[in-house]
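Sequence in, structure out. First:
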Amino acid sequence: MQEDKYTQTSDQAKASPKNTGKLGKKRVGQGVLCLSVGLVLGILGTNTYTTGRLPWELLSSDRALSAADLRKLQYGYQILNDQYIGEVKKGEAVNGAMAGMADSVGDPYTAYLTGAASESLDETIKGSFEGIGAQVTTENGWLTIISPIKDSPAEKAGLQANDIILEVDGKSTKGLSTEEAVKLIRGEKGTEVELKIKRGDQEQTVKVKRDEIPIETVHARLMDQAPDVGHIQISEFSETTYDELVQSLKDLQKQGAKKFVLDVRGNPGGLLPSVLKVANIFLEDGQTILRVEDNQGEEQVYQANSQDLGDFKIQAPLVVLIDEGSASASEILAGALQQSGQVPVVGQNSYGKGSVQTVFPLDKNGKMKVTVAKWLTPDGTWINEKGIQPDIEQSLPDYAKLTLIDTSQHYKAGQQSEAVLNIQKILHSLGYLSEDQVSSRYDQDTVEAVQTVQEETGLKATGEVDGETALRLTQKMQEKIKANDSQLDKAIDVLAQA
């Protein structure tokens, strides 16, 4: 296990803070601050390690477990072990107690990780993982997608931010923790998982084939319609993001880019040191990136600093793109550039996660992920459950939010339902049906439209929508959405006026 890749001391994580209090006075030594929403299906979102002493070694006597508390725990286990009619597995009992302790604080981002969830953290360090590639969290008792990873099986299957995963291979996710649900979804490359998805008021089943997901966090290109504009997508903030971004910026400049779109749509967060270094590229030394407030209310200010965060700087017209899937570290970047750098932010209101987590390894099988602080924008705003408000609001076309087609069903002539209506709306959006042919009834016009799609995509022209046809329709919709990215177009328009 290459543990060192994500092992950093608290001094390294702090980068170049301006102390306005005593942040970390009661903090565990050598902890790493990290910012992310939920888990990736096959990879843990908060991918950091903490080295040094165990948390309880720094507790004051009034906060530590008393001898009576410890006796109570021991006695409870003894009763269970002696009196329970079935078998009591010591390891599972201990893990259950640890999980209950973490759950007791009522924070969705604080959790005890063991088994598959703990192993997922280690997989991050390897540079790739096997799964479907979607960031998830638990909201109101249900597993909810924050965003699919670019080019992942989840994205190719049409999964979107805010889709609710109701069932995994027939098992309900209601009441499951994020970690428990991830155990059901993750698996080996090449295997399939069946997900029951709710989008809006519609429910459908989707089969997703797991694959190996490389952890490449920066994707860059020169825009065809604006050859002086470089479009840079950051999918998450990992240890490699800064180096990837610097190289991408240099490459784009060589190709003629003089303006840039920094796209963090669907980016659920990542490592605090990473986003600090990224923000530093676009800010002048001394400008505030964020403020962090600990559990004592004491504040620490993080500022741009070439000496600690890197001396590569870009002074060029810039726009930041965000959406409802932009969370945590993405919001730090957007807030810092918006408030300190006066960079226009375009898109939709972001997710709204204003807390910081640290992962503490307890032993080889268990880790405790704990919310240790909250972060504020440069002007002191806590965006938790509010998000970053864009300067210029711009949504994607309405068809981008159409419901997925249930790949477990078979649709054919004569049927009439909301699901058929959804298929017709997709066909209309793709230009295969006119608006007056959308009726919710699977008629001859629909049969012929489906046959055309099947002929174009190399399928047997049955005129019926089966799982394979549903997948081809989904792929066509994704291509259309990417080709008609109104948010990116707006960002380019803003840069044209710069």
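Second:
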Amino acid sequence: MASSTLDITIAHLGDLKVGYRLSNDKIDPKKATLVCINSMCMTAALFEPQFQDTQLTSACNILAIEPLGHGATSFPTKAEHFNYWDTAIMALEVMSKLGVEKAFARGTSQGGWMVVRMALLAPERILGLVPLGTSMEAETTESQSKG
């Protein structure tokens, strides 16, 4: 479950309330940041073992962001439909709002598709990818039309 929410506006989606959880409740600029996106039908609670791992949280910031329509993250106010690209755009905006310029990105299952899209949208901001349990099929016209 998210421990915080952040209000953001994205032009084509409208006003959003985004659920997220941050290790140690703040970004330590001296540490690398790992952004985590959970799978469908899950929340940031999926990453509880990582948040409880003091060896990990002493080495890096962990920022778990709940995708659109999951956990504490709202549905878009302006768009009737949304896709994985929209969650990637939202996650990059959350990073900006929290002062995270660059990060490694980890996604589980469909969360992996979202972090790959983050890297495609902003390759200068994503330092590396950790897709877990994620299929990486080729992008085709058909797959793009599905979001």
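Remark: Residues 4-146 form a domain with the Rossmann fold fold (CATH 3.40.50.1820).
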